[in-house]
Every structure is written in structure tokens, then in C-alpha cells.
Amino acid sequence: MKKWAGRVGALALCAGLLVPAVPGEALAKEESHHEFPISGFTDYAEMTKKLRQIASSSKGLVALDVVGQSNKGRDIYTVRVGSGDKVILIQSEIHGNEKTGTEAILNILKTVSGNSPYARALREEVTFVFMPMMNPDASEGDKRRNTMTWAEVVEDFPQLSGARPSWNYMDRGIQQQYDYGKNPGFDVNRDFNPDLNYVPRPQDFPGNSASPGWFITPEAQTSRDVYKSLTEEFGKVEVFIDLHHQGLYYVEGTSDQVTLSLSGNFVPHPSTPEGAKYAQYADKYNYDFSRQLNVAAYDALQSVGNSVFNNITLYSQGLDLPGTALGSYALNGSGTVLFEVTGQTQSFGQKKKGQLVKAVERGLTGIIDAVADGSVHQLDPEAYEDIPLTAYQPAD
């Protein structure tokens, strides 16, 4: 089994941190007013240019593919590198105002596609598939939701004529600068279903946050199609990582602000009474592996000292969110990890942005190295339970 001497070095030095958006009512946060401009972040045109440059200069190592289109017709890309039988799928910007994940992906992509012995060894063990900026309409609008109307959904799925719009659709009200009456849309990260072949049925609407989604948005359909294709090719997607942002939270029992929250818990275990409704997925679901992956990320972040990436926590546990990509893909056998960095993209200036991108990269590096050399399977999944919890309010 190979050991990665360069481990926490090569990838971690890239730059970037991410803010994940998680499942649940508490996760259903909306866009905030921008204190700082987003000009320091990579926009859709810049990302496309960078991806093409990386692919064209890689001498065939990097495959850039258009795998779908957003509601407004923007191309959605995957970037693939490596030939190993362990598949790591990493997705960012399912919420368009959570941009640090895309920065982290671009930096890590440069490293794993490089010519160093470290990068070559990684590619022998792992097939990396990146989906940066998978909700480009929302990214360009700098908002959480996509740009699809319910009328467009009914046009795509006539059987839904007369059904109530899904609960994750917003078409009224003004929040900050966002007039949803004029610019309605869906929270795409509530549009997933553990049944990857599900076809929308009117009786399943409007649903709720604890129910599966419907694959009615083109962005969720694209992610699902990529996942299914990789599963058919490799047997399963070993690891799925979703990069998000969160609000301002605290280490439980303290007034210390959280930098980054992790999680591998999105649905109750199918073997428990609470998870009995997922019994058909019991043979695939591997919660211990998800916990090991999270421990790998946590250990990598802690290895540089709390003064650098201070206050790494577990996101809310005990969730039941099958409508998220993380919940659906976990039930289909993938080890899953949520990254939730503090604040929304525009809450901090460039210095804080750089620290957060680096934190995301550091955590991803820990996972990548541990999966590549197999050491992830030696980690104690119970160590996951020792990671400090996130609190929504500071201690008195």
C-alpha cells in the first residue's frame, strides 16, 4: 500500500476554502446582502477559460466534458483526471452564492494533473471527477436558487399540471436585493431522490424537507446522470463530496466562531427504526466509511494546528434529508462528506477568502490521500463522534 510522503503538503498549499450548504430547514438559508464584491471570485466565463487551459495543456491527462445545460442553457462541465479504480466525485456551487468550493477545485485540479511523483501516484489510484459551478445560472446571479419557473417544470413534465409547486420553489417576496416574484427559482440541493430512476409523480408534491426530491431541475438531473454513469462504469462512486457555505456558527458550549463544519450524516441508518423507510438501501449504505472520510479531513485540518484553521466542527447531526445530493448518494453506497465554511461568499474580504479556500483544500487533501493509499480504512469511525459539534448561538 502506497504512503503519500507529500500528503498534507502538495494539495494543501494550493489556496482556498469553501462554504457548504447543507440539508434541512436550518440549511435552507437564503442570499444575504453583499458587504464585499464578488469580483475576487472566479465567474462562469473565467472558470470555463481556466478549465479549457488546464485540459489543453495536460497532454491528454485531463478530460473536460459538457455533461448538461442549466435552465438558461449554460454548459455544465465535468473535469476528469486519473485512471484509478477509486472514484472521488467533488461538486461545488449547487448554491450559486457559495463560491469558495470552485476556487478550491481549480487549485486541486492543477495539483492532481501535474507532473510531480505525488500527482502521478494519486492518478494511479484514483479517478477524480470534478463538477465545479454545477448551478451556473445561480452563480452568475450570485444567488442560492436556480432560475427555473414552475411553469417550465410543468412544460417538461406535463403530468405535474395541477400539482402544487414543490416546497423548495420560491416565487414571491423580496429578500435583500432578490425579488423572487420577478426571479423565481428552486433550491437545487433539495431536488435529489435516492431512486436514481425516479420519474416525477403529482402525488409527491409539494413534499417537504424530510421527503425525497424529484429531479425536476436540469442541474440536479445532470449531477444524477454523472453519478449514474460513473456507477455503471466503476460499480460505485467511492466518495462524494459536496462543497458549501453556512452562516455564522459557534463551537458548541463556547463563543468561538466556527471556520469549517464537516458531516457524513444526512439520513438515519436504514437498520434503525427511524431509517426503516430506507431499508431497500441497507446493503449499500456505509455510514462508517463516511465517518472515516470525515475523520481523515478533520485530522488533516488539525495537523497544522488550531491557530491556522481554528474551530473545525461537525455540522448538525441526526438529519433526515433524502432530497439532498449527499443523502441520496449516501443511500446509493457512496462515502459522503459535507464541507460547510463559515459565512456566505461575500461576507469576508480577500484575506478571509484565502484562508477559507485553503481550509477546504486542506480537508480535501486529507481525504484524497487517505483514499489513495487506503489508510482511510484504518481510521476509527468512532473518532467522528469526538469532533466538536456546531452550535447556532454562542455560549453565555
Automatic annotation (TrEMBL):
Annotated GO biological process: proteolysis
Domain Peptidase M14: 40-396
CC terms in the record's Gene Ontology section: extracellular space
Signal peptide: 1-28
Cofactor(s) annotated in UniProt: Zn(2+)
Keyword set, alphabetical order: Carboxypeptidase, Hydrolase, Metalloprotease, Protease, Signal, Zinc
Signal in keyword set: yes
PROSITE patterns: PEPTIDASE_M14
SUPFAM superfamilies: Zn-dependent exopeptidases (SSF53187)
UniProt GO MF annotations: metallocarboxypeptidase activity; zinc ion binding
A UniProt-annotated Pfam family: Peptidase_M14
Keyword Zinc: yes
PANTHER family per record: PROTEASE FAMILY M14 CARBOXYPEPTIDASE A,B (PTHR11705), SLL0236 PROTEIN (PTHR11705:SF143)
Family, as annotated: Belongs to the peptidase M14 family.
Protein's name in the database: Zinc carboxypeptidase
Source organism of the structure: Edaphobacillus lindanitolerans
